[in-house]
Amino acid sequence: MTDEFHKPTQYSGDKFDTFEGGDDPEQILRVAHDTAHALVDRARATDDPAVVERLVAYTDEHGVDALSELWARSSAKSLAGALWRIYLIRLLIRQDPDNISFLFQRGTEVLRTIDAAVAGAPMPTGPDEITELADEILRGLFRGDFATALDRAASFCRITSAGCVSVAGDVELITPDRANDLTTRALRLTLTGDELSTCARLDRAGNLD
């Protein structure tokens, strides 16, 4: 990872997995695998909470570009792919905590599943609570409870997706463009949630690499 800091990249929440990788797919996968494992192993090998906090806040200083070069082209069913998606979720939340917390809160009201309990956000969930949830999930990854953290992130995605669908229904007749954007976001969040749930199962089986 580069030592040169730059302004964190800003982009809208609908741009999951749109970064271009390098020209050598085999080299990209090898570097992604090695860096993902090195990062997780480093965090788990230390008792210093400051190390974990620096890893959690990495994109706040460096931007997401540095991570995209390493992990964006990795399989969704890999350690690097899981880390990439978790960092993107955190970035999505931190760039628009008011809107995301609103969609999440709506999702908890319409989704009749255990996902709200799994995600573990305080109720009601405002901007501060949703931002802290994103950081807690990343801390969980680095403190060794990887599968649980992935399940929490997957539940966040499913809840927020349900909120998007619900709000889209409210505004469809008034602002159809916004309704379409919300529906598209819901589909992407659902896909990401499914991918993270798969990664959690693979991790519990010792097969997430």
Automatic annotation (TrEMBL):
Residues 1-20 are annotated as: Disordered. This is DNA-directed RNA polymerase subunit beta.
